[in-house]
Amino acid sequence: MEAIRKHFFNDMSVMFGRSMRHISRSMDTIITVTFMPIAMMLLFVYVLGGAIQAGTDNYVNYLLPGILLIAIASGVSYTSFRLFTDVQRGIFERFHSMPISRSTVLWGHVLTSLVSNAISVVVIILVALIMGFRSSVGVLSWLAVAGILMLFTLALTWVAAIAGLSAKSVDGASAFSYPIIFLPFISSAFVPTESMPRVVRAFAENQPVTAIVEAIRSLLSGQPVGNDIWIALAWCVGILLVAYLFAMRAYKKRM
């Protein structure tokens, strides 16, 4: 059993290194994923922020959690693209002809998504600090925020894996991310849900992004989190488990 476990982790480290080399040779991917949310943050804070009644004097603090989720949703679309490319080029078949653990080919892309999105999140937070974002919370709160963002990234990455393995075209592989990127706009990410029409408000308050945004916002501001963190974790874990099962099923079917 120990030998099998060691073999699995060795194979996974090789696949992870391969995917990370692709990222390092194409830094425009991370730049593109990071630039769009930063541009959006600049637009909302310095152009639209004065007209938005968010109930706070520091709109950057209010806005940041939603911007981070949009960055992650944009980033995972590249995971789907890279998976689709590997499938179309027959890379998976070549790896499967070698004596390696088959699932490590998929896990390499997943771990790469975690690392690349973490880089984007850190850069966006640094820019937010320059724009006036402030948080006096301790290390535990920041670790809780990091944990939620990691779970969210994992969940969306496995959704991306389904799209990458099932798509018939490059456009189809990345199109799944558009509705996910749009979800924060119908949530409490930019404005309080109380300002929305009744039907829109009902949807906004019961979709996953609102619970995740509210949990992160409360953690960063040092406010009581309440049930939001449990709802956020339930959404992330639920999506992660379902997406993982369907991704592995699509992977086995494809191969």
TrEMBL record:
Top-level taxon: Bacteria
Places the protein is found: Cell membrane; Membrane
Start and end residues of each ABC transmembrane type-2 domain: 28-254
Primary residence: membrane
Record key words, sorted: Cell membrane, Membrane, Transmembrane, Transmembrane helix, Transport
Sections of the chain in a coiled coil: none
Membrane-spanning segments: 30-56, 62-84, 105-133, 139-163, 175-193, 229-247
Topology relative to the membrane: Multi-pass membrane protein
InterPro entries: ABC2_TM (IPR013525), ABC2_TM_bact-type (IPR047817), ABC_2_transport (IPR000412), Nod_factor_ABC_transporter (IPR051784)
Assigned protein family: Belongs to the ABC-2 integral membrane protein family.
Full protein name: Transport permease protein
Organism placement in taxonomy: Bacteria, Bacillati, Bacillota, Bacilli, Bacillales
